[in-house]
Amino acid sequence: MAFSKEIYxxxxxxxxxxxxxxxLLFLGNGIASFNYPxxxxxxxxxxTFLYFFGLDYEGxxxxxxxxxxxTIVFGDELTIDDxxxxxxxxxxxxKCAAVGVTExxxxxxxxxxxxxxxxxxxxxxxxxxxxxxxxxxxxxxxxVPVNTAAGDAFVAGMPVATPSLEMCYNVAxxxxxxxxxxxxxxxxxxxxxxxxxxxxxQMVQPGMNEKDIAAAVMEVALREGYYxxxxxxxxxxxxxxxxxxxxxxxxxxxxxxxxxxxxxxxHYAGDLTTTMPVGADYTSRQKDVYNVLINSYKTAxxxxxxxxTYREVHVAVWAKIAEGLKALGLMKGDAMEAAEAGAxxxxxxxxxxxxxxxxxxxxxxxxxxxxxxxxxxxxDSRFGFRSLRLGRTLEPGFVFTVEPGIYFIPELIDQWxxxxxxSDFICYDKLEAWxxxxxxxxxxxxxxxxxxxxxxxxxKPVDIEEILACKNGTFTPYx
Length: 479
Ligand code: GLY
Ligand code: MN
Description:
Elements: H1 5-19, E1 23-27, E2 33-36, E3 39-40, H2 47-53, E4 61-65, E5 70-74, H3 80-86, H4 92-97, E6 103-105, H5 108-119, E7 124-125, H6 132-142, H7 165-176, H8 180-203, H9 210-223, E8 227-228, E9 233-235, E10 255-260, E11 262-263, E12 272-277, H10 284-303, H11 310-327, H12 335-341, H13 368-372, E13 399-402, E14 405-407, H14 410-419, H15 428-431, E15 439-441, E16 444-448, E17 453-455, H16 464-471
Parallel strand pairs: 1-7, 5-6
Antiparallel strand pairs: 1-4, 2-3, 4-5, 8-11, 9-10, 10-12, 13-16, 14-15, 16-17
Bound molecules: glycine and manganese (II) ion.
Glycine binds at residues 230, 259, 271, 354.
């Protein structure tokens, strides 16, 4: 599936104009093996390649040679051996015509084309590679070792080839501003993601295993013809932020944290998190913390609009959490001071959210600072702040997650307590009794509009009453 060819033509024209010259090199993804050559992971095309060429097939590369006004896709036709195992496909020329590319060449011609560019000392721009195969391929084509972090574009004679920072910034400028057809695809992915979450809330019961939930949630995506935008997190140990183990039995009184998303046929992502009780209801202690969490979430959703920085929103969320935890006797002092100092990172060590598009953490291979921060900016390197993937001023067209969490991480509590860290703000004596609490997070996806923001997709259950209604089968996702 692809958008109309005019969309890809317009995107390629925009990047040509923004870059102004040089040769842009795009290497598509191949099939990746997981234990022997013919046993493969599901094919996933590179998102930058998809964005400019819409060709969801393995074994392709492309150049936009701005200096010579040429756009060429390189690839080989299927042989009869390929067809026997994988079936027929359109020819490369037919596939390319559908996305507005008229010139195609066999893959063996790519090295010749790059060598000619090198001999003319044309700057060669490419996006940071993230797969070993692509790094080796680039090394072979360019004839020098390849860096994975962005910097100066490669010109023949340089001892290493560095991905092009200019290309990262220019492509991120385009991909950060989602067009209406992209937003429609994202909302389709989110709506399936909402179904995944409702399924988990409805089915979870004491005695089940985390893998029962993970399997059922992923089944929802697969049955819709979708895939997952990242490995599902379904755990009663939500304080471990990326807990992919599925090893725990779920008991009455436990929380289940589900962080799961679908990726649709056009490879746009949804990303939601719901924290639900395993038994009939949250415990009163869980309700207290859940209400703090949802208040902080609503603080964020009422603040987001064009012109505000996401860092400001993140700090305001931390302050709201500090205020709520103060009421529970777990923090003390001025809530905003605690937030600005970084003390609330004890309870929420991750950032408030990230850009989302074709990649669930959109364009994170470019370097998150080049996507989520203004040109030339550095990230704040302090604990907690450095995990904020999106910190820049929000602009219309940005799509991102809002995902505050509150966690009680015993190892972090012990370490900070021993170091006396932020003891003006954190009530360590009280925290001892909370080390078995676990963690909770609520995550939804938003678009910045000209005047404010829009919640994307149907609404999943969020408030306690909605979660309990969903468990009882009386909640319907709504606009
Ligand atoms: N939903 C997974 C993440 O944002 O890291
Ligand atoms: Mn997320």
